[in-house]
């Protein structure tokens, strides 16, 4: 068997927003397997904002340098195996990267995925879903009637957190970048209110919509919005620090809100890294799978076809022009 | 009875550090009591850094304006009563303010203080002690072997937190402003290590003393040190945001550390306001009184004589030239 592997590597560091020109397509022959290894064909690749942080060398995982294959989580099908742990045809979750084939030691693969829509293992039932669940349910512990504010409200993490907050009986206010997303947040995801940050003054709208303050802020963006929300926290607020999209494209890290704001509101602020919650993934799936099956937890997936188009999809994601969880469907 | 009350009022806003000239002494006759009221003679007045924040109008309690009597907690003796709740000679804790006599509705006084050293109700067994206990024990929950860093390590809150952290089996590193305080922290309070920030490079010393990172930071100062510590947190660190001495004398609030630092360390950050823990004061006293009685929890008190000298004592406190908990002993 002599399969051709298409790989997307970093070509150059982006100055600010990444463009497709920052990436290069390489092709090579797939290696032979060693004992204990498994050959996987990529079905879906997950594209996520944290990858911009990896390129900047600031993510807690390894940095990515020009010439390196781009990292990424995939749902992949086992097509050849020299391990007794997996059979041909098993569909698994693995760190396949931005490529059409990947070889793994069998220990690096997840258990076979059994639910009928395998892409969900990268979205609502995958890392974005687990991130939302860990931050909102395990860390913030929402109570009925509390006010929850979620930026990037229709993205993979935000959409899940918003729906979970509604399930918990909260008033949920989203923040998005377009009227189309605002409509989607309210009409499809069930947000009580949603602010279009490109058409409205966010601080004023927060004052109107949260007159008694904000109880929970699920921060996915950092930057100026984190300051604005921090001045509007209710007593006993919880802030989940999870993402920093506002600064991923910058060379410098931004400073945080004045500590006095968090003292004043007696806030509890949690730094969230989803990898810490990997041991509790099954607990999360057990809680959310029934909701997904009953249509009570939804996820729009923004699917681009072809690994060669991953750089375009990533640039679109980093411009905020995605609609839901960004995935690449690999066709070979 | 026609008693003369000496009162210290704010005269003018300090530009930066307060000086005695920012305050004025007023004298007046003590009023007659109404039904349900109690007349108290001040024994000890507590002076605390948060008062600088009240003068700046930024504290969560009411602001203090020129002409206003300075607020403050006191240990006072009941010398006249029109309430059945208290008897002459009772020693109580109350918000007596910077004055030699104060009149209160009986409901505003604490239960009579029974332990033999009443000034302790303003120091190790009072608000500074409760602050330290709430932040370190209830919020941060120290575990044996963890590394705890405490700035203002010999002040009222810091000294208590440091000793409690030692009791919990932690490695405790203090930061102080003089060699004399450094010696005191190590030799009397039992700190494992102590950094003199005016003689050593704090960041370098933290690297040497905490090679595996800092597990708990009890922040009493804010400012640049909070940034420096935040870059050195261990995974799962806890940060107690309690005081902002570094900025109390400034007109502007400083920004906080980059949120990325707290994400990276999966920190939990707690805003601490001691008033929230008032319902648990007895629990704290029950835990600490035996330690105080057995000499396992100590507090040096820096006592100035005479209410007229309170402005000098406060200026000295805000310059960091106090040695232990600052109190004024009122003599009439």
UniProtKB/TrEMBL annotation, chains A, B:
Keyword Oxidoreductase recorded: yes
InterPro entries given in the database record: ADH-like_C, ADH_N_2, ER, GroES-like_sf, MDR_fam, NAD(P)-bd_dom_sf
Any one GO MF annotation of this record: oxidoreductase activity, acting on the CH-CH group of donors, NAD or NADP as acceptor
Record keywords, A-Z: Oxidoreductase
Domain Enoyl reductase (ER) residue range list: 18-328
Keyword Transferase in annotation: no
A Pfam family assignment: ADH_zinc_N
Protein name: NADP-dependent oxidoreductase
Source organism per UniProt: Thalassotalea algicola
């Amino acid at each position: 068997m002599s399969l051709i592997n298409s790989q997307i590597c970093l070509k150059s560091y982006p100055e600010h927003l990444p463009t497709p020109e920052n990436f290069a397509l390489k092709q090579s022959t797939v290696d032979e397997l060693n004992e204990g290894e498994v050959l996987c064909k990529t079905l879906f690749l997950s594209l996520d904002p944290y990858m911009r942080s990896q390129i900047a060398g600031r993510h807690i995982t390894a940095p990515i340098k020009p010439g390196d294959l781009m990292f990424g989580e995939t749902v992949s099908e086992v097509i050849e195996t020299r391990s007794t742990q997996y059979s041909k045809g098993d569909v698994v979750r693995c760190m396949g990267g931005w490529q059409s084939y990947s070889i793994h030691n069998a220990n690096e693969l997840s258990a076979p995925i059994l639910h009928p829509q395998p892409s969900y293992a990268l979205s609502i039932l995958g890392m974005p879903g687990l991130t939302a669940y860990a931050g909102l349910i395990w860390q913030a512990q929402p109570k009925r009637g509390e006010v929850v504010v979620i930026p990037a409200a229709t993205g993979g993490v935000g959409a899940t957190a918003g729906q979970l907050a509604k399930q918990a009986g909260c008033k949920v206010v989203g923040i998005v970048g377009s009227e189309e997303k605002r409509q989607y947040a309210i009409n499809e995801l069930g947000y009580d209110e949603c602010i279009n940050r490109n058409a409205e003054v966010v601080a004023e709208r927060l004052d109107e919509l949260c007159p008694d303050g904000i109880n929970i802020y699920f921060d996915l963006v950092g930057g100026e919005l984190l300051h604005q929300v921090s001045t509007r926290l209710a007593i006993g607020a919880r802030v989940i620090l999870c993402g920093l999209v506002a600064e991923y494209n910058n060379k410098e890290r931004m400073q945080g809100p004045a500590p006095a704001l968090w003292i004043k509101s007696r806030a509890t602020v949690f730094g969230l890294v989803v990898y810490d919650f990997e041991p509790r993934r099954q607990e999360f799936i057990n809680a959310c799978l029934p909701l997904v099956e009953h249509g009570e937890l939804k996820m729009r997936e923004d699917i681009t076809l072809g690994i060669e188009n991953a750089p375009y999809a990533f640039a679109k994601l980093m411009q905020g022009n995605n609609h839901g969880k960004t995935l690449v469907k690999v066709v070979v």
